[in-house]
Amino acid sequence: MDSKEKVIQTIRIRGPVIPAQIAKVIETDIMMASAILSELVSKNVLKISHVKFGSTPLYYLPGQESRLQDFAKNLHEKEKKAYDLLMQKKVMRDKLLEPVIRVALRNIKDFAVPLQVKINDGVEIFWKWYLITNEEAAKTIKEMVKLDKPKKEIKPVQRAIASKEQEKPREEQREIKREELKKLPEKEFKKEEKKTFIDKTAEDAFLNEIKRFLEKNNIELIEEKIVKKKSDLDLIIEVPSAVGSLTYYCKAKSKKRISDSDLSSAFVQGQLKKLPVLFLTKGELTKKAKEMLSKEFKNIKIKKI
């Protein structure tokens, strides 16, 4: 039996292994054992895990996926919480989850499988437990979507027309409307136009304020998106540093109190974009937000403007 056959036979009996275990079996060093395992992975004979034993991934045969659960205890605290929740529910809807759980599910790729589901005119992400079939997941998703509250149909309000007006021919009604329009004072039109102009300017006020702040601090604005007019912005920026410009995801919010959910949402976006986070705010952090910042979101930088 050559080394590769011995490796396969060992994994068939033991289940998922790390290179150090294989090195002992075939009496070689870890580097050589890793090379043999990698070659078997490249030939699709073995699979490699995302979950790690210490700092090392696991190698296993197709069909041994269920045995990866023996190593779930090695997951980080938040990832283990997401793992337990998904194992219990089997299918979860991404948009209904806490931001921290959503991030964790994206990290436990061995156990959480993302499914893109078209619902009405949009696409949503659902997560399925890796050991259930797509058919089982589809059945559960259909039941979940059925529970959505139907949107209320908005019917146009029709003004009641006096019976005498109904009796008049359409051409005569049209002439009456033209006469009524002529009687409207000019200043009413001017007042309405002026009001529209003021509203349009106000829509950009917060973005302009942020741009002035960035310019003052020599920060380059790469990309901008208005999430909510006058109060919520998503930005990509480049911050100068001693080692060159650093790219950040920037969340800017104009509100008096910044909650832990605000920080969680920014943290998730930073994780998805694989960028550090700068949070610009005009308000103060809540007590819980301060606690989360010192414990769970240490990589978020807060700057008051």
Task: Describe the structure concisely for a colleague.
With about 300 residues, this protein is an alpha/beta fold.
**How widely separated are the two ends?**
70 Å
Instruction: Examine the secondary-structure arrangement and name the CATH architecture of the largest domain.
Output: 3-Layer(aba) Sandwich
Largest sheet, spatial ordering of strands:
6-7-8-10-12
Task: Identify the CATH class of the largest domain.
Answer: Alpha Beta
Helices and strands: which structural class?
Answer: alpha/beta
Order of SSEs, N→C? HHHEEHEHEEHHHHHEEEEHEEHE
Tally of helical segments? 12
Uncertain stretches = 156-165, 187-202
Relative helix content: 40-55%
Give the overall shape. Answer: globular
- Beta-strand portion reads 15-25%
* Number of spatially distinct domains: 3
Biggest beta-sheet profile:
5 strands, mixed
What is the CATH topology of the largest domain? Trna Endonuclease, Chain: A, domain 1
Q: Mind telling me the C-alpha Rg?
A: 30 Å
What is the residue-mean pLDDT, rounded to a whole number? Answer: 83
Write down how many β-strands occur, each being a DSSP E stretch of 2 or more residues: 12
What does this structure look like?
The chain is of the alpha/beta class and 305 residues long. It starts with a helix and ends with a strand. The chain has helices at 3-14, 19-25, 30-42, 77-89, 99-107, 134-146, 163-167, 170-183, 186-203, 205-216, 260-273, 287-295; strands at 47-53, 56-60, 91-93, 112-119, 122-129, 220-228, 232-239, 246-253, 257-258, 277-281, 284-285, 300-304. The radius of gyration is 30 Å and the shape is globular. The chain has 3 domains: 3-65, Winged helix-like DNA-binding domain superfamily/Winged helix DNA-binding domain (Arc Repressor Mutant, subunit A, Orthogonal Bundle), CATH 1.10.10; 75-146, Arc Repressor Mutant, subunit A (Orthogonal Bundle); 205-304, Trna Endonuclease, Chain: A, domain 1 (3-Layer(aba) Sandwich), CATH 3.40.1350. Helix 5 packs parallel to helix 11 and helix 11 runs parallel beside helix 12 (287-295). It contains 12 helices and 12 strands. The protein has a 5-stranded mixed β-sheet with strand order 6-7-8-10-12, sandwiched between helices.
